[in-house]
Write a structure and sequence with these properties.
The protein has about 400 residues and is an alpha+beta fold. It has a domain at about 145-405: Penicillin V Acylase, Chain A. The chain contains 14 helices and 17 strands. It has helices at about 5-15, 30-35, 65-75, 80-85, 85-95, 105-110, 115-130, 135-145, 235-245, 245-255, 310-325, 330-340, 340-345, 390-395, and strands spanning about 40-45, 50-55, 55-65, 150-155, 165-170, 180-190, 195-200, 205-210, 215-220, 260-270, 275-280, 280-285, 290-295, 350-360, 365-370, 385-390, 405. The protein is globular and about 60 Å long. The termini are far apart. About 50% of the residues are buried. The model is unreliable at about 1-25 (pLDDT under 50).
Length: about 400
């Protein structure tokens, strides 16, 4: 299926330049201890599922069948799904009135490549939130139809041989998704339990870690999608996160696909890390060497690679830092790297770091940045709040150690 340049431009505008009011110019430094001292706030319950606020971060625990997980997701996050995505519901209504529109038919056509369990989960979200299913499907397929975020990821081996993975999520400061993500702790009926930081209403593995210590993040590759007979990236990354015991499992799953969404997947484990470059009918794997691996928003191996200068500068900065500090790399130094201007996009007035995470696959600890109140400050400038996946999934094991890392 092929779509016009005007249609592609339309979706680009939706994601990158829609005017939204930006408030809160002042920067308030957040006290880590104040956040940690806050009692866990119960924000909702539905059967075995719950919503709570921990150290200022909204967490939603979901378990059951695919439909049950989706229904509870819709019930517990109805307000966020409606409000955060409002601009996309408005554009869905606009597109629905266009007799020659292409994007809604494309979204519906992509459904046939989505695993049945995720269709059931999306239907559950629709029923639980009261939003029609076609809109939830459209929302979940938008990241495949058009994605213009600029993300960064890297892994390194600490002096104690543990793998640490850092993940930066960047997007236009005008986007309604900026700093509005929720931490989902999901124990599915099949596969492995996992944590995923997602936009409300999404069935995705965009950023997460499972109970085998596999981390997955999806990233822009700056290559045009030309073959649409593909599983949407949301559901592909979710499958990799939910069902993988190793990086090789991810590779086997990807090799089963005939067509790929044009994206990068950064995957790490307790032992190593890999980048999977994907675009249409091309796929390649790049493995960690010399104790570190970094990825920016361009492909380095597949034939259709489209390398852009800002992405190259970002990757060069990351690689040089990791190489120069390899002998004594730790989480604190990793956070110093992700707070540099080039990595946060602080030099760019239209794109900022909207979220930042640090994963420790061996300990199952992870730390999520609590974004500063100011929309003009990168999320990574805030404090990092610690979680432990096994603790959140099963109420077993210890809390993250350390409990937090201070703000910039």
């Amino acid at each position: 299926m092929r779509y016009s340049k005007n249609s592609i431009l339309f979706i680009f505008l939706v994601f990158s330049v829609l005017p939204l009011a930006i408030s809160g110019c002042g920067f308030q430094k957040i006290s880590v201890q104040d956040l940690l001292n806050q009692p866990i706030e119960k924000a909702g319950n539905f059967n075995r599922n719950k919503k709570y606020i921990k150290a200022g971060i909204t967490v939603v625990y979901l378990t059951g069948t695919p439909y049950e997980i989706g229904f509870a997701h819709g019930k517990l996050c109805k307000d966020e799904i409606i409000n955060v995505n409002k601009i996309y519901w408005d554009y869905y209504d606009y597109l629905n009135k266009q007799h020659d529109g292409k994007w809604l038919p494309l979204s519906r056509d992509l459904e046939r490549y989505i695993p049945e369990e995720y269709i059931l989960e999306m239907k559950g979200i629709a029923d639980g939130s009261g939003i029609e299913y076609d809109k939830i499907l459209f929302l979940n397929n938008l990241t495949t139809i058009s994605m213009h975020s600029n993300c960064f990821a890297f892994s390194f081996r600490q002096t104690d041989s543990q793998i640490i993975t850092a993940r930066q999520i960047d997007i236009s400061t005008n986007s309604p998704y900026s700093k509005k993500m929720i931490l989902y702790i999901i124990k599915p009926q099949k596969g492995y339990g996992f944590a995923a930081l997602l936009n409300p209403g999404m069935v995705s593995g965009e950023t997460g870690m499972n109970e085998n210590g596999i981390t997955v993040s999806e990233n822009n590759i700056q290559i045009k999608q030309t073959d649409w007979d593909t599983m949407p990236i949301n559901h592909l990354s979710r499958f990799a996160l939910q069902y993988s015991e190793s990086i090789d499992d991810v590779e086997r799953f990807l090799k089963e696909q005939k067509v790929y969404p044009a994206r990068l997947l950064f995957v790490s484990s307790k032992k190593s890390a890999s980048v999977f470059e994907m675009a249409n009918r091309e796929m390649a794997r790049i493995n960690m060497n010399d104790g570190y691996l970094a990825m920016a928003n361009h492909a380095c191996t597949i034939p259709s690679k489209n390398i852009t200068n800002p992405s190259v500068k970002r990757l060069d900065l990351g690689n040089n830092f990791l190489k120069e500090n390899l002998e004594d790399l730790n989480i604190e130094k990793a956070i110093n790297l992700v707070r540099t201007s080039r990595i946060t996009w602080y030099w760019n007035p239209t794109v900022h770091n909207r979220q930042s995470l640090i994963f420790s696959p061996t300990t199952f600890n992870f730390w999520i940045a609590k974004p500063p109140n100011s929309n003009f400050k990168p999320a990574s400038h805030g404090p990092y709040i610690g979680f432990n996946l096994l603790n959140e999934l099963y109420s077993t094991g210890d809390e993250a150690n350390p409990k937090a890392f201070p703000a910039y």
